[in-house]
Structures are given as C-alpha cells and as structure tokens.
Amino acid sequence: MSFRRSIAGLPLIMAGLLALPLSTQAGDPPQVAKGKGDACVEPTDVMRRDHMDFLMHQRDDTMRQGIRTKKYSLNECLECHVQPDESGEVARIDSPDHFCSTCHTYAAVKVDCFECHSDLPKSMNKAAYKHKLTGDDMHHAGIQHEDISKGMLDAIVAGGESK
Amino acid sequence: MTMQNTDQSRRKFLGTSAAAVAGVTIAPGVLLHTPAQARPVDQPATSAQRWGILIDTNQCDAGCNDCVTACQSENGWGSNETKSSPEQQAEWIRKVELKDPNTGYKQSLPVMCQHCETPPCVDVCPTGASMKRADGIVLVDKHICIGCRYCMMACPYKARSFIHETLTDQKTVAPRGKGTVESCTMCVHRVDDGGTPACVEACPGKNGKAMVFGDLNDPNSEISQRLKQYGGKQIRADLGLNPGVRYQGI
Question: Do A131 and B177 lie within an 8 Å CB cutoff?
C-alpha cells in the first residue's frame, strides 16, 4: 500500500456516496452501526469524507516518529466502532457488518489495512488469538542454528570492545 | 570469571551507585529509576535517547527459551504461520548455542535485530521502508515495504524474516502481513509507553536477569553503568555498525 485516491476519481466516488440516500438503483444504503459514545473524533460528516486522510497521516506519525496520540489511531477507531452485537457475536473484516467494511463493500473500496492490522479492538484481541507456544514444533530452539551462528559468532570473540 | 559471585556484588554496586548518582530513594531499597520515564504521546522520538539491550551470557541459561516465547506471545509470531516451512517461518529472536571445540565450554545467548547505528538494511532499502528511528530503534515501515528482501540479505545477523502467507488474528500491537519483511522492533509499542521489551521483562536469568534494557545515551542508566564498569562486546564489531545490542561474557 498505498496509493492516494486519484483526484480524478474522487468527485465521482464522492458524488456516488452523496447520492446514496436518494438513490434507488444502487440498492439499499449501508446501515452503519453507531459507534460507542456520543460523537466521533471529528464531526460525522468530516469523518465520512476524510477518515482515510486522518488514518494515513497518523500511520506515518506513529510508524516513523513514534507519535502515539489516540485521536486518529486505528486501534482507537476499532475500540469504539467494533463491538459485539446482542448475541455476543463480533463481525470480522470479511463480513460487510464490520464497521470498516460496511461502506467499503457498498462503494467497492478495497483497503489492505486488515491484512496486517487486527480487525478487533485490543480488548477483544487477546481472546481471539490462540497461543501455541510450546511443543515439539519449537523450531526456534537455538540448537538448530548452531551451524549458522557458529561462523557468525566466531568473529565475535575477535571483535572489539564497545564504546 | 566466576560469574555468580561477581554478579551479586555487581548488582549491589549498581544499586548504590545509581542511587548516589541519579536515583531518588523513596524508601530503603526502593529506587526510582530514571529510564522509565515515558515521552509524552504527542512528542516524536528524538536522538536524546538511544535504546539498547545488554545481554550477559553468563546469566543466560541454555535450557531457557523464555525470551523467545515472550516475544512470540507479545508480537504474535511463531504459531500463526502454519503453511510456511521452518526455514520460512518468522523468527524475531532466537537462542544460539556456542561451543568451544577445544574445551567443550558452552554458552547460550539470544540473538535478534542488533539495532545498528549504521544499519546496512536501511542502506539497501529501495523504498525507505527499512528505517532507523531517531532513538536508534531499527524498524520496517511495512506500509511501504514491497517485500524485495534486500534488507534480509544485507543483515549480517540474519535478524529479519519475510512473511510468505496470509495471516489472521494478529496482535493489535504488532500488525504483520504477507509480502513484507519484519524483525525485532525492540517492542517499540512498549518503549513508547515507557515500558521494557517483552524479552527483557520475561528473562529470569540464572542468578539475576541476563538482559537489561535502557538508554545508552544516559550515563546513569543501568545499561550504561554496567557497560562502563564491565565493558560489553558487539557481535561482528569488525563491521563497524555499532549495534545497540551488546553482550557480556562472549
């Protein structure tokens, strides 16, 4: 990732979006679940239009500089917007009911974020992940690396003192 | 060196000297450490810090894999790459055993990204994805990683892995995905929060921790104090990369 939305395509898609409530041909407009709390981090109409810019900006600030403000953090979006329904079920990203899929499915937008990012808020993330840290398949035990590391580390002893 | 005794006194020494130099003694035996101060969340990391890890191989138990399993459960690697072959599977940190063929003397130590000051992985990256943060932590910006793996070839420590398959159920704190390269992040999400990397936290050591995390730029930090007193070695120091991970006892 990632390509900026092309300026040329933007008015088209946005026009499509704005037309949603009126449109009869495009099918039912997506029912976006309301987030936790009273308000989003910006006015709702701003979020609808500009959420991708906030996220991309935050992404670079966090990744490259270690700035970890909460306002536009992807993890925080999920914290408010991904919640279990009455039956305790949580929609995952491949379902159109996941907050970040509702509109995207409708508007045929594909984002790759959740190929890496968890689609669940941190509070639910722990339970969803099954550990398998012990057992025979511990290929990480050091002994297998003896050959590689021997050569590499031989040089260590010859190496100099640190500063 | 007979390490058990040395290390006991070393700890005592460090305790008192740190208190005298920089610490604030709250109550007898309780020390307020300077390095645990978190940077405000809206402030960028700066070169005022240089994070490092010191590994004392004399304290590292050959049968212990706790640093590796702690890293796995923190960052979610090791069990969800089910289709990859063992050679392909991710490995952010590994235990290495060294044996002196003449004497049979064995040593065990963890090896991970050494967080070089002049990282070859950053030099070769065509997109700028392989990067060093101002505070010395070497990372892959996976958002712009194209998966070319030049960095893996450039790394003299074999510290990086490539993800060959679609992953699910990643950890919130450690997004990971197919087609990108990854390596030890020094638990950057914890460090930014004023915390300690998971491996260091989990290390039981033989007779005291084998791993110390801290700021190499702060002369009063435990890691700097230890390095000053007892020295430390860099793996492949001949390459002149000045890693942030240092070793004692090798």
Answer: no
d(C-alpha B52, C-alpha B47), whole Å: 13
CATH number of this structure's domain B42-248, picked from the four choices 2.40.160.40, 3.30.70.20, 3.50.50.60, 3.40.50.620 = 3.30.70.20
Please count the structural domains in chain A.
1
Let me know if residue A61 belongs to a domain. yes
Number of Cβ atoms within 10 Å of the Cβ of B44: 13
pLDDT in tens, B151-203: 999 999 999 999 999 999 999 999 999 999 999 999 999 999 999 999 999 99
Q: What are B152's two structure tokens?
A: 């893996």
Using a CB–CB cutoff of 8 Å, tell me whether A162 touches chain B: yes
A95/chain B closest Cα distance in angstroms:
14
Which of A1, A118, A145 has the CB atom closest to B94's CB atom?
A: A145
The minimum CA-CA distance between A38 and chain B, rounded to whole Å, is: 24
| Distance separating alpha carbons of residues A14 and A7, to the nearest angstrom | 11
Chain A residues 101-160 with CB within 8 Å of chain B: 112, 115-118, 120-122, 125, 128-134, 138-143, 145-146, 148-150, 152-153, 155-160
- CA dihedral B3→B5→B8→B11, nearest 10 degrees, is -50
Asked if the structure places residue A151 within a domain, the reply is: no
CA atoms within 13 A on the CB side of B237: 15
pLDDT tens profile A78-103: 999 998 888 888 999 999 999 999 99
Interface of A with B in 46-85 (CB under 8 A): 59-61, 63-70, 75
Tens-digit pLDDT profile for residues A28-72: 778 888 888 889 999 999 999 999 999 999 999 999 999 999 999
The domain of A45 spans: 28-128
- How do residues A111-155 score in pLDDT, each as one tens digit? 999 999 999 998 887 644 333 333 333 333 333 334 444 455 554
Nearest chain B residue to A72 by CA: give it.
B42
Contact A118 B247 (CB under 8 A): no
Do the domain assignments include residue A145? no
pLDDT more than 70, % of chain B: 85
CA distance linking residue B50 with residue B196, whole number of Å: 14
ipTM score here?
A: 0.83
**How far B57 CA lies from chain A's nearest CA (Å)?**
13
* Both tokens assigned to A162: 């640190």
